[in-house]
Amino acid sequence: MLKVDRSELLPIGEYENIREHFRRRIIAEKQHRRASVGPHISVTFENHDTVLLQIQEMLRTERITKEAAIQHELDTYNELVPGPAQLSMTLFVEIPEQAERDRMLVALAGLESSVFLEVDGVLVAAHSSERDGAEPGRTTAVHYFLVELPADQAASLAGREPPVALVVDHPAYRHRADLPPNVVAQLAGDLA
Q1: 188 vs 155: CA distance, rounded Å
Q2: What angle do the packed helices 12-30 and 48-62 form, to 10 degrees?
Q3: Any residues with CB less than 8 A from the CB of 88 and at least 6 apart, and which?
Q4: Is residue 131 over pLDDT 60?
Q5: Count of beta carbons in the 10 Å neighbourhood of residue 43
Q6: pTM of the predicted model, to two decimals?
């Protein structure tokens, strides 16, 4: 999958002209790239277009126009675009009530090493990159994971053959969820 190129980024004024249509298209696409595992965790599998939207929205929200700052956002978010035999996902701990969310984020300390993708019966660890804002003794509500698939699992998934599940195996949160066929189809397309 190709990284987002600088030439794809629109100036803020031009982006405003297409924003509503572009956001609507990517949000609709994300519905087929999202899955839940248990009652409080969901993931969105990232691709070129989802990352392009995130970059454009960041530039718009922060009013970023200086070339060095644009390049920084491009470099940062391009880490989410998966390479060959890789899948990238953003994980969200979703608990609306603030006090309960804070309690759960402490209980989920170490979540970064407890997330797996199960492809055709093989557990593959998801690796989280260290992000700013991490605090000792707790986790964050948003994580970015990269899954490096072994060749056999990547080929099997690209052929849309295997069952695929998302697994969280943490002492405070043990859940497994089979990915819906529409999500598996998107991941197969990413790997093809």
Answers
A1: 9
A2: 140
A3: 45, 46, 47, 80, 81, 82, 144, 145, 146, 147
A4: no
A5: 26
A6: 0.89
